[in-house]
Specification:
Blueprint (H helix, E strand, L loop, with lengths): L1 E6 L5 E6 L3 H12 L4 H25 L9 H15 L2 H13 L7 H20 L3 H6 L5 H6 L2 H23 L1
Antiparallel strand pairs: 1-2
The protein binds zinc ion.
Zinc ion binds next to helix 2.
Length: 174
């Protein structure tokens, strides 16, 4: 264990404890010197996050998504999440378009119409969702998962599954 005076890439000096075998310490010291000091590193990270959030907010506003509500901190994070989650908004719009013509062999036409309507409603509800807290809560979910969790979509998907099963049994009988 020894203390080293490290001059970081940002120009700041830090007196740092370096552990481990003597022969590895110089390597560690060189590696530390090639990086910014902890404070500059954190500041740059925060700046990058703020920039990503600002870009995301502009993209969302251009796509007509609502302004988010919550604390400043929640909103800043949720702006980025909402764009990532929609991956981006164009993906959500593509999903919206695909749903309108999507057909599932074996499902009844009325059921498919109801499923399409329910899915479009769920997509629209997601795009209208303004609570920063909710975006943070569901940050690990893909948009398709969030849409599938809508009770009406889930219910109709079960109906479709039953109809597919029924149509396969009929094929066997015929
Ligand atoms: Zn620094």
């Amino acid at each position: 264990m020894a203390r080293y005076e490290i001059i970081h890439a940002c120009g700041h000096a830090e007196n740092t404890q370096i552990y481990g075998p003597m022969r590895e310490r110089q390597g560690k010291a060189d590696w530390l010197a090639s990086r910014d000091c902890a404070e500059c590193y954190q500041r740059k990270l925060q700046q990058q996050r703020a920039e990503a959030s600002t870009r995301a907010a502009a993209q969302s506003a251009a796509a007509g998504l609502p302004a988010l509500s919550g604390s400043d901190k929640q909103i800043a994070w949720a702006e980025t999440l909402r764009c990532d989650n929609l991956r981006g908004i164009p993906n959500m719009l593509r999903l919206r378009e695909r749903v309108q013509t999507h057909d599932i062999p074996g499902a009844r036409a009325e059921t498919m119409t109801a499923l399409r309507t329910a899915t479009l409603d769920a997509i629209d509800a997601l795009m209208r969702r303004a609570s920063a807290h909710e975006w943070i809560e569901t940050r690990s979910s893909e948009p398709f998962d969030l849409v599938s969790k809508s009770p009406e979509v889930a219910r109709l998907m079960n109906v479709v599954r039953a109809e597919i099963k029924g149509s396969k049994q009929q094929e066997v009988i015929a």
